Amino acid sequence: LSLHLQAKMSRPVQARRLEGVDQNIWVEFVKLAATYATVNLGQGFPDFPPPAFLREAFVRAVSGENHMLHQYTRAFGHPPLVKILAEFFGKLLGQELDPLNNVMVTVGAYQALFCCFQALVDKGDEVIIIEPFFDCYEPMVKMAGGTPVFVPLRPKVPGAGKPMSSADWQLDPAELASKFGERTKALVLNSPNNPLGKVFGRGELQLIAELCVKHDVLCISDEVYEWLVYDGKEHIRIASLPGMWERTISISSAGKTFSATGWKVGWTVGPSRLLQHLRTVHQNSIYHCATAAQEAVAMGFRWELERRGQADSYFTQLARELQGKRDRLMRSLEAVGMTPIVPEGTYFLVADVSAFASDVPEAPGSDEPFDSRFAKWMVKNKGLAAIPLSAFYSGPHKNDYGRFIRFCFAKEEATLEAANDILQKWKQEKAAP
Ligand code: PMP
């Protein structure tokens, strides 16, 4: 027998936990955008730089005297960073936070989520996910052996003459309550919500909190867009509600907070009783996050802490700027006949594209939702990339609201101008006989 034949593998190589989670819609849409897009409003990150004070902090970290910033630091978070995060979030949550026990730094919010599911979800556990949802929650729950249980935000018809807002998408209290049961281990909350931009109100959060307390359920609260909130709306942290601190892990990241998604610095805040299990996952997988990036983010928070509530606060400025970009993109989309849902937060905007039903070729025999076919048609024919809302729904629910697409408006003026040019030209073509 030749060595060649012996070397061939015939046994299955894939671990069972990967079954059913290997499909990823982003691969397809990223490729389509790379091939056809002149303007890409699909990708969910800024095309503008982080603020100068943050970039300068990174430069100081890598070129300064302290060469130890090139080496490992504390596994669960660089000491200056966990210290300032404890101070910053302690104030917001009304808790005295111990930097060494109540904060853990992660490789972006993504790894924070992964640690939560791996550490807290067991085989047979159910995890409630509110649809539409940031798409990684579902495979992460499944990889941990858990079962996702979905509950939708249901759109209400807005008041006469009012545009639809993300606030019009609400949970049905009875429907939500019906999802809680003996096997429910955790609920994932994402406010402000990607993709809708919904900022959950106090009443809605209280409802969720009461159910979590009643059924002794954990809350994994993904708050990466916490500073991107518009029109004077307030972001409320569910961990600050009665009975919630001890059962909530709050997650955020420098990616959205400081417009530096590529640095991949994120964190979790919560009681040590919960975080200790995240630390176990962290030290047996990633172990450690980049020291210099953590140092720079610590400096960024120091800078911001000194300016809270003042005109030069970065968080205040960023939200104001993004609100202007949001309004501008809404006007451009309306001009061509799309109906935007006004987002209260995040840098995403979802628009109803049902008016274009006759422009997109039918796909007989396919169960691909209309929004997905529309997004592909739009990038191929108009050069404008966006993501179908159905990407943020679980398999059986992908057709429930399959008439919307998501745009990201965290873009330079020139990018938004180029998008507007495409939309204006499209409008003229439509008007032409
Ligand atoms: N949660 C949500 C809701 C997000 O939109 C994202 C990024 N798109 C993340 C988490 C991941 O954040 P990070 O880049 O910090 O890993």
From TrEMBL:
<keyword id="KW-0808">Transferase</keyword>
<dbReference type="Pfam" id="PF00155">
    <property type="entry name" value="Aminotran_1_2"/>
</dbReference>
<dbReference type="GO" id="GO:0070189">
    <property type="term" value="P:kynurenine metabolic process"/>
</dbReference>
<comment type="subunit">
    <text>Homodimer.</text>
</comment>
<dbReference type="GO" id="GO:0047316">
    <property type="term" value="F:glutamine-phenylpyruvate transaminase activity"/>
</dbReference>
<keyword id="KW-0963">Cytoplasm</keyword>
<dbReference type="InterPro" id="IPR004839">
    <property type="entry name" value="Aminotransferase_I/II_large"/>
</dbReference>
<dbReference type="GO" id="GO:0047804">
    <property type="term" value="F:cysteine-S-conjugate beta-lyase activity"/>
</dbReference>
<dbReference type="GO" id="GO:0030170">
    <property type="term" value="F:pyridoxal phosphate binding"/>
</dbReference>
<comment type="pathway">
    <text>Amino-acid degradation; L-kynurenine degradation; kynurenate from L-kynurenine: step 1/2.</text>
</comment>
<keyword id="KW-0663">Pyridoxal phosphate</keyword>
<comment type="similarity">
    <text>Belongs to the class-I pyridoxal-phosphate-dependent aminotransferase family.</text>
</comment>
<keyword id="KW-0456">Lyase</keyword>
<dbReference type="InterPro" id="IPR015421">
    <property type="entry name" value="PyrdxlP-dep_Trfase_major"/>
</dbReference>
<feature type="domain" description="Aminotransferase class I/classII large">
    <location>
        <begin position="39"/>
        <end position="419"/>
    </location>
</feature>
<keyword id="KW-0032">Aminotransferase</keyword>
<dbReference type="GO" id="GO:0016212">
    <property type="term" value="F:kynurenine-oxoglutarate transaminase activity"/>
</dbReference>
<dbReference type="InterPro" id="IPR015422">
    <property type="entry name" value="PyrdxlP-dep_Trfase_small"/>
</dbReference>
<dbReference type="InterPro" id="IPR051326">
    <property type="entry name" value="Kynurenine-oxoglutarate_AT"/>
</dbReference>
<dbReference type="GO" id="GO:0005739">
    <property type="term" value="C:mitochondrion"/>
</dbReference>
<dbReference type="InterPro" id="IPR015424">
    <property type="entry name" value="PyrdxlP-dep_Trfase"/>
</dbReference>
<dbReference type="GO" id="GO:0005829">
    <property type="term" value="C:cytosol"/>
</dbReference>
<protein>
    <recommendedName>
        <fullName>Kynurenine--oxoglutarate transaminase 1</fullName>
        <ecNumber>2.6.1.64</ecNumber>
        <ecNumber>2.6.1.7</ecNumber>
        <ecNumber>4.4.1.13</ecNumber>
    </recommendedName>
</protein>
